[in-house]
Amino acid sequence: MMRGRKKYDRRCHELAEYLRKQRKGKKSVHRAKKPEKLGVDPFKGDSTDTQRFIQDCEIKLDYFRESLRKDRDKVSLVSPLLQGPDKEWYQSINPYVSKEGARREGMPFDLKNVLCTSEGFRHRLVSSFGGHSDRDRALREWNDLTMKSGKIDHFCDELMRLALEMGYSGNFVKDKARVGITTDLRNEWALKTLLPDEYVEYVNLLRQTGHQLEDVASFNRTVTREKQHSRPEKSDDRQSSAKRPRKDRKGSGLRQQKSGNHAFGTSRPQETEHTKMHRDIPQTLIDKRKRLNQCSQCGQAGHYWAKCPSATPVVASSRITRKRGAGEAGYEATQVPKS
Question: Which end of the chain is less packed: N or C, by CB atoms within 10 Å?
Answer without folding.
Answer: N
